[in-house]
Specification:
The complex is a heterodimer. Chain A is of the alpha/beta class. Chain A has a domain of 89 residues. Chain A has 13 helices and 12 strands. In chain A, helix 4 packs parallel to helix 7. In chain B, 77% of the residues lie in helices and 0% in strands. Chain B contains 15 helices and no strands. In chain B, helix 6 runs antiparallel to helix 7. Chain B starts with a helix and ends with a helix. Classes of the chains: A alpha/beta, B mainly alpha. The interface between A and B is medium-sized, with 34 and 23 residues.
Chain lengths: 336, 310
């Protein structure tokens, strides 16, 4: 693979929130690269910093958030970019869709107006052209009878339809990168599958890159090539999707996968990771997972773990990984 | 839509009937107009004759039936003090009241709404805190205190404006300022919280993510949504336009509805009080209807519900 600048590279991205006297660190030095046309999954529990990472990169966090580090889009740092520059990038280079489609659309404006707004903004089209393009986009995202839907309000559409509209709005700027932040969490299972298929089809058709943020390992495994696992504001493991699910190396990833019910095996009690996620204003000095990790050594608690490349595509932030064989959780169960 | 209007009209009629009936009974139980108008020292025969002349010797329910029958025919009784038709007496005071309440309303909106928006957009800044402190001061200060303060500064100290009366347009300035300041403070607080509520909604972040500039996000996406709850308080302010301002009109000797209300209640000028309450309640009901229509106009979700109800 020839070395080239990735489309977007996060370098040591850190986000602190001022929470009444104490500082909560939501994102703690995230390094991550997304290449042109890549499909990257970002998994982790609620509060692990998945969404905040991308909101920070786009400058969409409230002013009480302090963002440090870099987010380079084709080399240009977005963290330091002025507001106007960010406004020009949002929607046009990087688009974002959100978890709750019904409340992500403005309830008092018609669907058509909201789609056309994005088209006019990014393509400078006149009214007639914008309307025709809006109809084409709604058709492209699989909305039947787009001419009629343009005159509907968001509350007249289902959640799945609204998410399709959000996707149409995201496509209006022909972005290079689409951040899909839990795009199917608020939808029921069949609609979820349709939306994910649509996102995959659109990605292949347009060649845009996609970051799929989800707490659902199943959603991520089937729709991306590469997965990053986040824990307490840090990326703890990054690997091609098949490698990650076949051979998770970080104890946290192993724990997550062990917590999934098996469809084929015998019914058994689901494994849970003991302990709780560290509080964001009190992150441990060493590995953030060490306090809950059955394989943790004394030094894990003391010093921050550097990333370790197991293969060119598989990186993990765990110093114990080379000493471990199989899942740390199997061993614990045997010992128990 | 038709059933909506019919049901609203019926409810409006019931509201007005209840207000007037309540006033009718309470005013008759709480004092004797004969004693107040003729004085306590009047000979018993005169008082008896006065009661008979105004029908006050009849049982209350009979008095009310008589009143209601006449009212349906457009006769709302006469003032016991000067014998003029009560409704005309009330209506001729309306322009004077509107002359101060309408400009005051404009002041409330022109000052309160931008202040509230500004405070919300600069949440937790020193400007927000200053605006909200001024607002708390504005609506917690009793209006007679503010009125007297303004008189002290602009009439007594500076001598720019007259302290009371109604001879020139300048006389209206201090009453308008007094009414407007308190209302603007309420309006600012309300607008601020409505804006903050809206600014926290996902569609605001989504609009920013589209690439819209912040001012367009505020103008196109935040303000139209924040206007919806604000309409409630504006409707209430419009509704109280005619009720006048009892305290402010009294302090500034302004000949409006508010002062007429005070003097006619004190004198137990029954027909005038009834007519006053009828006009005030009727206007309030109209304002409420306007608020409901405005909701439908501003919020498509409400529109769908009403059209489904038909």
């Amino acid at each position: 693979m020839p070395p080239e600048t990735p489309l977007l590279a996060l370098e040591g991205l850190t986000v602190d929130f001022d929470a009444g006297g104490r500082v909560a660190r939501a994102v703690d030095g995230v390094d991550l690269a997304v290449g042109r046309g890549d499909a990257v999954g970002l998994v982790g529990e609620s509060g692990s910093g998945k969404s905040v990472t991308w909101l920070a990169a786009l400058g969409l966090l409230p002013s009480r958030a302090r963002v440090a580090g870099r987010a380079r889009l084709d080399g240009e740092d977005l963290v330091a970019a002025p507001r106007r520059r960010l406004e020009a990038i949002r929607g046009r280079r990087i688009a974002m869709i959100f978890q709750d489609p019904a409340s992500s659309l403005n309830p008092v404006h018609r669907i058509g107006r909201q789609v056309e707004e994005a088209i006019r903004l990014h393509r400078g089209a006149d009214d007639g052209a914008a309307r025709a393009e809006a109809m084409r986009l709604l058709d492209q995202v699989g909305i039947a009878d787009p001419r009629r839907r343009l005159d509907d309000y968001p509350h007249q559409l289902s959640g799945g339809m609204n998410q399709r509209v959000m996707i149409a709005i995201a496509l209006a700027g022909r972005p290079d990168l689409l951040i899909a932040d839990e795009p199917t969490t608020a939808l029921d299972a069949t609609i979820q599958a349709q939306i994910l298929r649509l996102l995959g089809d659109l990605r292949r058709a347009t060649g845009m890159a996609m970051v799929l943020i989800s707490h659902d390992l199943g959603v991520v495994s089937e729709n991306v090539d590469r997965v990053c696992v986040m824990y307490a504001g840090r990326v703890v493991e990054e690997a091609p999707a098949d490698a990650l699910f076949a051979q998770p190396r970080h104890p946290y990833t192993q724990g997550l996968l062990a917590a999934l019910p098996s469809l084929t095996g015998p019914r058994q009690r689901l494994a849970a990771i003991p302990g709780t996620v560290p509080e964001p204003w009190n992150l441990p000095a060493g590995c953030s997972f060490a306090p809950r990790c059955p394989a943790a050594a004394a030094e894990c608690l003391r010093t921050r773990t550097p990333g370790l490349a197991l293969t060119p595509e598989h990186a993990v932030t765990c110093t114990r990984v080379l000493a471990l064989r199989g899942s740390v959780w199997d061993r614990r169960q045997v010992a128990a | 839509m038709l059933s909506f209007i019919v049901s609203r009209a019926a409810r409006a009629a019931i509201t007005i009937l209840l207000v007037v009936a309540f006033a009718f009974v309470v005013m008759r139980l709480s004092g004797d107009p004969a004693l107040l108008i003729l004085s306590v020292d009047a000979p018993p025969e005169a008082i008896e004759a006065f009661r008979k002349a105004w029908g006050l010797d009849r049982p209350i329910w009979e008095q009310f039936l008589t009143f209601a029958t006449r009212a349906l025919a457009g006769d709302f009784g006469r003032s016991m003090r000067d014998g003029r038709p009560a409704l005309a007496l009330v209506l001729e005071r309306v322009p004077a009241t509107l002359a101060i309440t309408l400009p005051a309303l404009a002041l409330k909106l022109a000052l309160g709404i931008p202040a509230g928006i500004f405070a919300a957009l600069n949440r937790n800044s020193w400007a927000d805190r200053a605006a909200m402190m001024a607002s708390v001061a504005g609506f917690t200060m009793p209006s007679f205190v503010l009125a007297l303060l303004l008189v002290l500064v602009f009439a007594v100290q500076l001598g720019w404006l007259p302290a009371s009366g109604s001879d020139t347009p300048l006389h209206a300035v201090l009453p308008i300022l007094t009414l407007g300041t308190a209302g603007a403070a309420i309006m600012a607080r309300f607008t601020r919280s409505a804006m903050l509520e809206v600014l926290g909604q996902p569609y605001i972040r989504a609009a920013s993510a589209k690439g819209l500039g912040w001012w367009l996000v505020v103008l196109r996406h935040a303000l139209p949504n924040a206007a919806i709850p604000t309409v409630t308080i504006i409707g209430f302010m419009v509704g109280s336009l005619v009720a006048g301002a009892v305290i402010v009109e009294s302090v500034f000797a302004w000949p409006g509805i508010g002062r007429l209300l005070v003097s006619s209640v004190a004198n137990r000028d029954l027909a005038v009080v009834q007519s006053l309450l009828m006009v005030i309640a009727g206007w309030m009901v109209l304002a409420n209807l306007a608020v409901d229509l405005a909701y439908g106009w501003l919020d498509p979700r409400v529109r769908t519900i009403t059209s489904r109800a038909d």
